[in-house]
């Protein structure tokens, strides 16, 4: 049974952008019945990424309060192609590719949704069997002007970019899903507002109680700016291996930390707010926050403790292969090479003294191109270091240059 | 077999507005094969009128040259509704009404087309069985901008008048008919140009040889201005009874005579041109031409000689019931009533003398409200004439008024 009354309202409305209408939502929650909460996803790609996980997590919150998640796999609509936010008609997907994607989606959503109050439907169930009469009846329900009001269509229309008639049918088809599953609430990213409102309209025209429309913010991709999307390559898939996931999060710009903490971690809002405040007043360095975020997300999708392992792996790999490319060059004299590695580090200013250099090497904290340096005293072969990146401890990097050109 | 070579080209292209393309038409005729000439008609009304007969007659000309008339009864598209030339979305017709109309259409076209090279098809045959996939495939073939280029849509869109999405599908559906019947040529009124071109486009996209598009002028309705149409009430149905048909033609404005002779009579063009020239230089009075036109059309649709009968009937009915409403009032004194009908006519100035009045009555040329007056001498009952129109001969009318109010 659903959490009675309005107790859950505060949690359910957190992090949302639009709710249409608040009154409808309050009334439906107050009824105490288990609501049917629809989320549609067209299996156009094989990975579910952190951006889509934002709405999946909201759906999970509804589940946790006793409501039913109705996940629509848009295997039919994926063939039509959602024009939302598109600047051009996109090629239609083949049914085989869609089916394969749908299967992996179902596997992946288990990481976020609980299977207890979950209903997974394919919209081909009711759309693929529609006859032309059904399609015409739907198309008679709306006008061209209404469709072209959409920002993306309006822009394409005014700039002469082609919009196929088929794209105009998309909102109606996915809206019909709401009628068929008798959705009480539909979730979507803000770019889905138009589509989700069509579902509400069609329900009203059918004489059903219209669904509450709830939109959530779009997570920016790991390079910032654009929303996270598979096609832009700026995404983190929720099934990506721990080191890849960790590494991708580490590339997220500092200023997106608050957004990522709020939308991806599933943390309660007071914890997120505390974190954001610490970041804002400098008590917390962005890089520290970012490592925490990365560990948190790896833990979330790969199990407690996976984050730390990923971090260690990341550090190893990162330091071996991903040394900053703008690291300072340090020119080493022949005489310094002869004094061995410890002395070389000291004269290069990477350690305060020969002794400290020896200590670091003994601890295994000195690496050249990711390979640990083991001998602190032996003379250094210039070919071994010229142009190479040396790393001392966790943070110091330098690219070594010798005046000596290696012999023939 | 079709008339070989290009012999028929001159006749077939007479009275056309657009041919797209002339070269295609010449090539197809030159091939010597029997062409499939499509004409689509949505059974949205029960009467075929003279306006639609214009294209039917052109189709007959193709038949006469050995080509096959493929008449598409748009029983399916009629349910969608052709938006051509419309300023608003029109209500959808019920299938029963459409079926009834289709049946009477088939009966009526026999008056113009020969049954020998005639193929009558219902487009529900291939449209009603379409699945959503087929519809989507069609809608992917064109763009919103392409559809809104249509004058009628563009105007409605710019003035904020609603266009349902369904209306956008209409041109594609009727265009698909051309693919299905493998039309070589399609005929239509000029208002059908856009639709007919869509058929050509779809054939090309299917890799078929595209149809020649041939448009014909729209006949103006009997009140002039608007094109003849059932919904405007300005039409002459080809099955209307002779007197109605005759009477309606007599109401056509004089300046439409050339248009009506050219488009409705089926006369050879030199005969039409001669007639138009005579009208232009005044050798022929418009009313005479109009009577000739009316007789000709009644003969055409009701058989040789029917025109003359209709004219006589028209004259009888017209003179009885259609007396000009602005006819002069003549006030009759009691003393004139007592002198009988002949004297009444003379004192009212409708005949030059009592004697002439008697002569006219004896000839049966005097009528009151269309009823022949037989007695010239008997005193006239004031209740029989008060407010009534008296007609003397063919052209004199007066409304009689008595000072005497009829007794209780």
What does this structure look like?
The structure is a homodimer of 408-residue chains. With 408 residues, chain A is of the alpha/beta class. The first copy, chain A, has 20 helices and 11 strands. Chain A has helices at 9-13, 22-30, 50-64, 77-80, 95-109, 124-127, 132-139, 144-148, 151-158, 165-181, 193-205, 242-250, 257-264, 269-280, 286-302, 306-321, 334-338, 340-347, 354-362, 382-385; strands at residues 18-20, 36-41, 68-73, 118-122, 185-189, 212-216, 329-332, 366-368, 371-372, 389-392, 396-402. In chain A, the strands form 2 sheets. The first copy, chain A, has a 6-stranded mixed beta sheet with strand order 1-6-5-2-3-4, sandwiched between helices. Chain A has a 5-stranded mixed beta sheet with strand order 7-11-10-8-9. In chain A, α10 crosses α11 (193-205), α12 (242-250) packs across α16 and α13 runs parallel beside α15 (286-302). The radius of gyration of chain A is 28 Å and the shape is elongated. The model of chain A is unreliable at 404-408 (pLDDT under 50).
Task: Tell me the layout of helices and strands.
2 copies of one chain form a homodimer.
Chain A: H1 9-13, E1 18-20, H2 22-30, E2 36-41, H3 50-64, E3 68-73, H4 77-80, H5 95-109, E4 118-122, H6 124-127, H7 132-139, H8 144-148, H9 151-158, H10 165-181, E5 185-189, H11 193-205, E6 212-216, H12 242-250, H13 257-264, H14 269-280, H15 286-302, H16 306-321, E7 329-332, H17 334-338, H18 340-347, H19 354-362, E8 366-368, E9 371-372, H20 382-385, E10 389-392, E11 396-402
Parallel strand pairs in A: 2-3, 2-5, 3-4, 5-6, 7-11
Antiparallel strand pairs in A: 1-6, 8-9, 8-10, 10-11
Helix pairs in contact in A: 10-11, 12-15, 12-16, 13-14, 13-15, 15-16, 18-19
């Amino acid at each position: 049974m659903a959490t009675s009354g309005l107790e859950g309202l505060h949690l359910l409305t957190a992090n949302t952008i639009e709710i249409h209408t608040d009154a409808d939502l309050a009334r439906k929650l107050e009824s105490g019945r288990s609501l049917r909460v629809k989320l549609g996803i067209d299996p156009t790609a094989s990975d579910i990424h952190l951006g889509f996980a934002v709405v999946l997590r909201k759906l999970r919150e509804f589940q946790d309060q006793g409501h039913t998640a109705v996940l629509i796999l848009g295997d039919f609509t994926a063939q039509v192609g959602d024009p939302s936010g598109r600047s051009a008609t996109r090629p239609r997907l083949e049914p085989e590719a869609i089916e394969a994607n749908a299967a992996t989606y179902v596997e992946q959503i288990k990481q976020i949704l609980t299977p207890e109050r979950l209903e997974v439907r394919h919209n081909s169930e009711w759309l693929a069997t529609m006859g032309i009469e059904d399609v015409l009846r739907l198309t008679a329900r709306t006008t061209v002007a209404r469709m072209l009001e959409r920002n993306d269509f309006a822009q394409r229309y005014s700039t002469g970019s082609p919009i196929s008639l088929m794209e105009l049918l998309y909102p109606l088809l996915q809206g019909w899903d709401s009628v068929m599953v008798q959705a009480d609430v539909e979730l979507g990213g803000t770019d889905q507002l138009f589509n989700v409102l069509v579902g509400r309209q069609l329900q009203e025209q059918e004489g059903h109680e219209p669904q509450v429309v709830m939109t959530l913010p779009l997570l920016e991709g790991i390079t910032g700016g654009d929303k996270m999307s598979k096609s832009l390559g700026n995404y983190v898939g929720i099934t990506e291996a721990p080191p890849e996931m960790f590494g991708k999060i580490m590339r997220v710009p500092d200023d997106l930390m608050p957004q990522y903490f709020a939308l991806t971690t599933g943390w309660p809002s007071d914890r997120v707010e505390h974190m954001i405040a610490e970041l804002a007043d400098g008590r917390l360095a962005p890089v520290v926050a970012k490592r925490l975020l990365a560990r948190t997300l790896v833990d979330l999708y790969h199990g407690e403790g996976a984050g730390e392992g990923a971090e260690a792996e990341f550090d190893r790999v990162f330091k071996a292969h991903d040394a900053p490319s703008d690291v300072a060059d340090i020119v080493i004299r022949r005489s310094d090479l002869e004094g061995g590695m410890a002395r070389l580090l000291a004269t290069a200013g990477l350690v305060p003294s020969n002794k400290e250099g020896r200590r670091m090497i003994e601890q295994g904290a000195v690496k050249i191109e990711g390979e640990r340096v083991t001998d602190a005293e032996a003379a250094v072969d210039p070919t071994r270091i010229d142009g190479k990146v040396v790393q001392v401890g966790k943070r110091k990097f330098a690219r070594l240059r010798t005046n000596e050109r290696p012999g023939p």
